[in-house]
Design a protein that fits this description.
Elements: H1 2-5, H2 16-42, H3 44-51, H4 55-81, H5 86-104, H6 110-124, H7 128-138, H8 144-152, H9 154-173, H10 175-183, H11 186-196, H12 204-211, H13 218-226, H14 229-270, H15 275-306, H16 312-331, H17 337-351, H18 355-364, H19 371-402, H20 408-421, H21 424-433, H22 438-441
Helix pairs in contact: 2-5, 2-7, 2-8, 2-9, 2-10, 2-11, 2-14, 4-6, 4-19, 5-6, 5-7, 5-10, 5-11, 7-19, 8-15, 8-18, 9-10, 9-15, 14-15, 14-19, 14-20, 14-21, 15-16, 15-17, 16-17, 16-18, 16-21, 18-19, 19-20
Transmembrane segments: 21-44, 56-77, 89-111, 148-170, 177-198, 204-225, 232-257, 277-298, 310-331, 337-360, 372-393, 413-434
Domain Major facilitator superfamily (MFS) profile: 22-439
Protein name: MFS transporter
């Protein structure tokens, strides 16, 4: 097999103190990654009004425009990360996505905004595959799911920051200013990544030169992955989770504005805020806190239960996918804003449990020389289906229910959220099926 024919890199151990530092830096970088990616969600309604967009165009702008280049470029950048300095690749990526986030604030029409979002996707493609590969080299195998889950906490933290900061700044200075503020911190952390994150491959230049003749090509790496049934079951299960999560994210604030606008305004006034600022802060804090707990808990459960039975890596997200459904449907069916936001904490928490187990499984299923590639292929599937199609599909459903089916904008978005959440049943079935193959597919 191609796995065994390749000379794996010699990995220099890092101290536990440096490991903690590096994980914190990567967490902050990933938080910025998601802040810049998700800030658009709380800005969707003012952008829609300002630029005169339909919901499907919002879905295109928030999802597909970003996802196409993000997913496609992730694979060649990951191949580069198998050979080159991973911290410098991450640093260059931060600079690119931060600059394009700022440019979103200068867009004068939907096509300019889509072009800038494509640029954000191009930059962010260079973050997670090399980061996952670095983390796997930094930490011992028995702590891999927990470490990757810690990194993945950047997803809810970035979403929290994007929703809260975006809503408050949009209320005070407009949606354009929110994009500009979101992109600003990237320069600092690009410098930190380039000069303080170490490349743990020992004697990097000599090691890579020696490996060049034995480098596994993409076709060979993909051939190895094709033999791993677990990888594909987990990849498509996670893509369904992403389809639901990314698809609903741009419309949850719109749901509250359209169905509970007066109540949101009244609650905001009690805190001396405007509606967007209050809702962004509320959804951000609830979603961020619950998401952080869920991501951390998923990694902990997978590592602890997986030490006794590897099937725990897919059992945990399978059960979470099933339990999520009734709570989410209840949240978007209630008349009370406070009760709805409160109940949303449960599906948000359960919806992030899969991060650590899924990404750790992908890293453990191949030889070290193919880990960045495995991560990129996994992200390709997850984001092409989830981020690329999810927002467009939910937006199209909302337009269908609102217009041709005559339910109006408020009920249209509500039923789009309800219908889309039922796809969680498919994710449950795929995760559960992976229980049959995961023990034989794990390599280390």
């Amino acid at each position: 097999m191609a796995e065994t024919a390749t000379q794996s890199p010699v990995i220099a151990p890092v101290s536990s103190g440096y490991r903690r530092y590096a994980l914190w830096v990567l967490l902050i970088i990933y938080t910025l990654n998601f802040l810049d990616r998700q800030v658009v969600n709380i800005l969707a309604e003012p952008i829609k009004r300002d630029l005169g967009l339909a919901d499907w165009q919002l879905g295109m702008m928030t999802g597909l425009a970003f996802a196409i280049f993000y997913t496609v470029l992730g694979i060649p950048i990951a191949r580069l990360a198998e050979r080159k300095n991973r911290p410098r690749i991450i640093a260059a990526s931060i600079l690119a996505w931060s600059a394009f986030t700022v440019l979103c604030g200068f867009a004068q029409n939907v096509w300019q905004l889509i072009a800038a979002r494509i640029g954000v996707g191009v930059g962010e493609a260079g973050c997670t595959p090399p980061a996952h590969s670095l983390i796997t080299d930094y930490v011992p195998k028995e702590k891999r799911a927990s470490a990757i889950a810690f990194y993945s906490i950047g997803t809810p933290l970035g979403t929290l920051a994007g929703m809260a900061m975006g809503g408050l700044i949009a209320d005070a200075y407009g949606w354009r200013a929110a994009f500009m503020v979101a992109g600003a911190p990237g320069v600092l952390f690009a410098i930190i990544a380039a000069f303080t994150l170490v490349e743990p491959r020992r004697q990097l230049a000599a090691d890579l030169a020696g490996r060049a003749a034995h480098q596994v090509g993409f076709g060979a790496a993909l051939a190895v992955l094709m033999t791993k049934k677990t990888f594909w079951l987990v990849a498509f299960a996670a893509s369904i989770k992403a389809f639901v999560g990314y698809g609903q994210a741009p419309f949850i604030a719109s749901y509250f504005f359209r169905n509970h606008g007066a109540d949101v305004a009244a609650l905001a006034a009690q805190f001396g805020l405007k509606s967007a600022g209050f809702l962004g802060l509320a959804l951000g804090l609830i979603g961020g806190t619950a998401g952080v707990i869920g991501a951390w808990l998923g990694g902990q459960l997978a590592d602890k239960l997986g030490a006794r039975d590897l099937r725990a890596y897919v059992t945990v997200p399978a059960i979470a996918s099933l339990v999520t459904l009734p709570f989410y449907i209840a949240a978007v069916s209630l008349d009370s804003v406070t009760a709805a936001i409160g109940i949303l904490t449960i599906p948000i928490l359960l919806g992030t449990l899969w991060y650590g187990p899924v990404y750790a499984t992908a890293q453990s299923i191949v030889d070290p020389s193919m880990r960045a590639t495995a991560s990129a292929v996994l992200l390709f599937v997850i984001n092409l289906i989830g981020l690329g199609l999810g927002p467009v599909a939910v937006g199209a459903l909302s337009d269908l229910f609102a217009g041709p089916m005559g339910l109006g904008e408020g009920q249209g978005v509500r039923w789009a959220l309800i219908v889309s959440t039922m796809f969680g049943l498919v994710a449950f079935a795929l995760f559960w099926a992976a229980r049959k193959t995961i023990r034989e597919d794990m390599v280390g």
